[in-house]
Specification:
The structure is a single chain. This protein has 93 residues and is mostly helical. Helix content is 86%, strand content 0%. The radius of gyration is 17 Å and the shape is elongated.
Length: 93
């Protein structure tokens, strides 16, 4: 079972909302909307995706990483490194 399984419906709901935002962006560009308005909506969609990413990361830490730490050994170190790399990718984006 994945760490996000319990929250899967909430994550999917958020992602569908982001999908709607992106479709709205496409429509705005197609209709030649004002640049700043498009940029504002891009920022909103980006924040929405970041919120999903942070929720998934939290689920991963609470489930996958915590479970690996409880078991100990190399798997625990691997999961911590994996989580650290994921956090670094999020920070850079």
């Amino acid at each position: 079972m994945r760490g996000y399984t319990d929250d899967k419906d909430a994550h999917l709901k958020r992602l569908k909302r982001v999908e709607g935002q992106v479709r709205g962006l496409q429509r705005m560009v197609d209709e030649d909307a004002y640049c700043i308005d498009v940029l504002t909506q891009i920022a909103a969609a980006t924040r929405a995706l970041e919120a999903v990413a942070l929720a998934l990361l939290e689920d991963h830490l609470e489930h996958c990483v915590a479970e690996a730490l409880a078991k100990g050994g190399d798997e625990a170190q691997d999961k911590v490194r994996e989580a650290s790399r994921a956090i670094a990718r999020l920070v850079r984006s």
